[in-house]
Amino acid sequence: MSIRPITANDWPAIMAIQAQCYVELTPESLEVMQSKWQLSPASCVVFERQGNVLAYALVHPWQRGDAPSLNLELKGPIESNSWYLHDMAISPNAQGMGVGKQLFTYLINQAKTLMVNGIGLVAVQGAQTYWQQQGFKPEPTSAKLAQSLESYPTGACYLYLPL
């Protein structure tokens, strides 16, 4: 098993995992997903076992207390000392294997090595409890963040993990 940066050949597997995992929202297009990768290729990774992509994480610079709207194609560069965990998804075939914990630990270690101040995310599909168990906390919602959150399913919540 290994965690490595995303390559162009990984996208069919990434898009399949996205479609399997996000049932409460319409999956983002390939172009939108790849825009996150193109913005920060070193922090966008896959978890691979025996040549099969089992999970992915799309992480890129973004301002603390803000989140990009869903389906927004990002353009760079973005100046920020915080990261945004846009998406971390694990194939149903890999559930219970500890993939999420390994992937999250890898991202945290990478962020600390690069002296990133913290990581924000929008929890969807009831994942708020999971992310809070990982140390993320709710933050005050600005008007700009509230507008972005309108593009997410009901119940979406912005959380931040200071490092």
Automatic annotation (TrEMBL):
Q: Does Transferase show up as a keyword for this record?
A: yes
Q: In what residue span(s) does the N-acetyltransferase domain sit?
A: 1-163
Report if keyword Cytoplasm is assigned.
no
Assigned keywords, A-Z: Acyltransferase, Transferase
The record, for PROSITE patterns, names: GNAT (PS51186)
Q: Which Gene3D superfamilies match?
A: 3.40.630.30
The UniProt entry, under PANTHER family, shows: AMINOALKYLPHOSPHONATE N-ACETYLTRANSFERASE-RELATED, AMINOALKYLPHOSPHONATE N-ACETYLTRANSFERASE-RELATED-RELATED
Question: What name goes with this protein?
Answer: GNAT family N-acetyltransferase
